[in-house]
Design goal:
Blueprint lengths: L1 E4 L11 E5 L2 E5 L8 H4 L15 E3 L5 H4 L2 H6 L5 E4 L1 H28 L13 H7 L3 E3 L6 E4 L2 E7 L7 E6 L4 E4 L22 E5 L12 H14 L3 E5 L5 H14 L8 E4 L1 H12 L8 H9 L2 E2 L3 H6 L7 E5 L9 H8 L6 E4 L8 H6 L4 E4 L2 E4 L3 E4 L9 H8 L8 E5 L3 H14 L4 E2 L6 E3 L2
Parallel strand pairs: 3-4, 4-5, 5-6, 10-11, 11-20, 12-15, 12-16, 13-14, 13-15, 16-19, 20-21
Antiparallel strand pairs: 1-2, 1-22, 2-3, 7-8, 8-9, 9-10, 17-18
């Protein structure tokens, strides 16, 4: 097999790994680049392989940095099967059309306001493109072997991290390679722990938190402090959140804190139709996560679901205290942008980040305590409190990753460390080399390797 890295190198976004054998081309993940402009421009550049020459895609999970390029791949000529777990397909049915719709709305807004340098501003792809690509999905069960052609076979194993998330093992008669996808945590409050590491000759390993250890304190304590403190100021707590996974975790913790009497009974608005749909998918897949059907129903009863854009805009005219959970998690788009524009200038309010903020994103700018942040073509002063809960992440940290790697005695011939900022990827490389004695490499964009 030949392996080429077409994304998730020196960044946590754009996951794409191309496997080739006997003229057969298989893409593992097909994500959008996010963050710095030079990364986002890659979304607009042609792939180094023609989409029509790719025979199939195997998807680890539904997050946009792993799935969000699929509508464009299909529009540009890909017509093969997309293999994923059933839960991943159910989430992609929500996330991919939403991604296309959001890009159409942002292009329309840019044209209406005139702040884009492009005349006219165009979406990368449309909601219709996303709906068409969903017809190519073929769900598979965990552990089932999938014939990819040319002697290649793939299988999925639970990765934790997100509903439906999987690690992907691909084997030929000569060798095998395991793609970790995004690796979950052993004690996540919602998700079951990842399966033990399947044996493989080569490993492609994520490193989002490869240079750090998650704080060990209970994230509920930090959340309770932020909510109580801001409520005393009669402020608004804005929580930029990934709609799938993180929003459900935040709602769970708020429900738990209210039941324990640790936070005041504030109105909680979930201003994300996608998060609302994802929450329903979670409730429909009881058994794949830790929450019972009864708990899911209770959580949903205590949250006010915001449906249309007019109701979303109306929130900006309300007075606190209140909590608004809205996408996107790194404040790169979505309804959170309008709330940030409205509420960031007031020091009574708080913006609370609950996950990793990739370099170059609006979230990273705010989290870095910038005095102002650019929104809709103008700079908005950041006077609100900026808070961060670091241990709500659904990614394994460096120590948890090492412990997962130890679940199998055998070691890969080589481990390729990806899906991390440069410092994180190199720190994990060094940790695995020193603690486990493994042969590790941090590949560059478009780098190729022969897996013999």
């Amino acid at each position: 097999m030949n392996l080429q890295f077409l994304g998730a190198t020196a960044t946590v976004s754009g996951s794409k790994y191309l496997l080739e054998r006997g003229g057969r081309r298989v893409l593992i993940d097909c994500g959008l680049f996010q963050g710095f402009k030079q990364l986002r421009l890659r979304n607009w550049a042609p792939l180094p392989v023609r989409p029509s020459d790719i025979h199939c895609v195997v998807l680890t999970h539904a997050h946009i940095d792993h799935s969000g390029y699929l509508p464009l791949l299909a529009r540009n000529g890909f017509a093969g099967n997309i293999y994923s777990s059933q839960s991943t397909l159910d989430l992609c049915r929500i996330m991919l059309p939403d991604s296309g719709r959001l890009q159409e709305e942002e292009a329309e807004f840019a044209n209406r306001q005139g702040f884009s340098k492009h005349r006219p501003a165009l979406p990368l792809y449309t909601e219709a493109d996303a709906l068409r690509c969903l017809e190519l999905f073929r769900p598979v069960d965990y552990g089932a072997a999938v014939d990819l052609g040319a002697g290649l076979r793939a299988s999925l194993a639970p990765a934790g991290h997100l509903l439906g998330a999987a690690m992907v093992r691909v084997e030929s008669p000569q060798t095998s390679v395991l793609f970790s996808g995004d690796l979950g945590r052993p004690a996540d409050p919602l998700m079951l722990p990842p399966a033990s590491r399947p044996p493989a000759d080569y490993l492609v390993l994520e490193s989002t938190y490869g240079d750090r250890i998650h704080p060990r304190e209970d994230p509920a304590d930090k959340l309770a402090d932020v909510v109580t403190r801001t409520a005393a100021r009669k402020g608004v707590i804005m929580i930029p959140s990934f709609a799938v996974g993180r929003a459900q975790s935040v709602m769970y913790y708020l429900w738990k804190l209210r039941r324990e009497g640790r936070i005041p009974d504030l109105p909680v608005y979930l201003n994300s139709p996608m998060a609302a749909e994802a929450s329903r998918v979670h409730a429909a897949h009881v058994g794949e996560h830790k929450l019972s059907a009864e708990v899911c129903a209770e959580i949903h009863r205590e949250v006010r679901f915001v449906r249309d854009a007019s109701e979303s805009r109306a929130l900006n005219g309300l007075r606190g205290p209140m909590i608004i959970i809205a996408g996107s998690g790194m404040a790169t788009g979505g309804r959170i942008i309008h709330h940030l524009e409205a509420f960031l200038p007031d020091e009574a309010n708080t913006v609370l980040f609950t996950g990793f903020q990739a370099g170059g994103t609006r979230g990273a700018t705010i989290a870095g305590r910038a005095e102002a942040v650019k929104i809709h073509g103008r700079y908005v002063p950041v006077r609100a409190e900026v808070a961060m809960i670091e241990n709500l992440s659904a990614h394994a940290d460096a120590a948890e990753t090492v412990e997962w790697l130890k679940t199998l005695d055998s070691q890969p011939r080589r481990t390729f460390i990806t899906h991390g900022e440069p410092a994180a990827a190199d720190a994990l490389r060094l940790r695995l080399s020193e603690q486990l004695g493994w042969d590790c490499a941090v590949p560059d964009y478009r780098e190729r390797h022969l897996l013999a």
